[in-house]
Design brief:
globular; four-stranded antiparallel sheet; single chain; mainly beta
């Protein structure tokens, strides 16, 4: 079992920044692949970014150059630094690993 707890969401103006955190606990290995997803008003859950077991990072086209995914292996925490936020980034953001999901953290970007 893996427990994931996201935090760091909030309301921000367009052009602003937020940093999301995902604290992982349970049967998690230090280099497990992990990712961020988001679900907006369309109710679809879209992939945003991920970090592989080898530490390589990958980004959706819509966030590349604005978001940075990183991890603190010592503390089993995944981060998503979000810069130059746009109203279309408004969504519930979830982290995931090994098929487990957190409860999400809401990000709202006002224009």
């Amino acid at each position: 079992q893996v427990q994931l707890v996201e935090s760091g969401g909030g309301l921000v103006q367009a052009g602003g920044s937020l940093r999301l955190s995902c604290a992982a606990s349970g049967t998690i290995k230090v280099d497990d692949a992990m990712g961020w997803y988001r679900q907006g008003q369309d109710e679809q859950r879209w992939w945003v970014a991920s970090v592989s077991t080898g530490g390589k990072t990958f980004y959706a086209t819509s966030v590349k150059g604005r978001f940075i995914i990183s991890r603190d292996n010592a503390n089993n925490t995944l981060y998503l630094q979000m810069n130059n936020l746009k109203p279309e980034d408004t969504a519930m953001y979830y982290c995931s690993t090994q098929g487990f999901w957190g409860q999400g953290t809401q990000v709202t970007v006002s224009s």
